[in-house]
Amino acid sequence: MSLATVDTALTIAEAAEVTGVTTHTLRYYERDGLMLAVDRAPSGHRRYTEQDLGWIRMVTRLRATGMPIREVRAYADLVRAGDGNETERLALLRAHRDRVRAQLAEVATHLEAIEFKIAAYETQALACLGEATAV
Fold first, then answer.
1. Are 52 and 15 in contact (CB under 8 A)?
2. Integer Cα distance of 93 and 58 in angstroms
């Protein structure tokens, strides 16, 4: 494991602030195998590089779009294993993308129903307003 220098890396608190996750979440990601190797300062404190921040953002996006922890861990394992498994990584990400697209289509259908109801109520409200001004 290489040691990061103070000049080139962020503390866990700084990384949390930059990425919008808590320090607890960052420790959890590392403990649960979702992080790639995070360097340590000579003091033993974590030091996050720009590459680590990019990875945290990716993990956060995968989780926010519903990818199960086990799949994020599998993806991280593939990345940690290095070159030669890009086809597996691609398959995992494509499957997730397809699930996200299906969810978006379902939400769009729900939104259409809500828009329909709003239009109906707006029409009704305008009709009532027209009756009130006619009196």
1. yes
2. 11
Structure tokens at 80: 């940690």
Q: How far apart are the first and last CA of the chain?
A: 82
List b or e across 59-84, with b for residues whose CB sees 16 or more CB atoms inside 10 angstroms.
bbebbeeebeeebbebbbebeeeeee
Structure tokens given for 73: 């861990």
Q: What is the CATH number of domain 1-82?
A: 1.10.1660.10
Identify the helix (H) or strand (E) that includes residue 15: helix 12-19
Q: Where are the domains of the chain?
A: 1-82, 90-135
For 1-135, where are the alpha helices, taking DSSP H only? 12-19, 23-31, 50-64, 69-81, 86-134
Give me Rg for the CA atoms of the chain.
Answer: 24
pLDDT tens per residue across span 30-50: 999 999 999 999 999 999 999
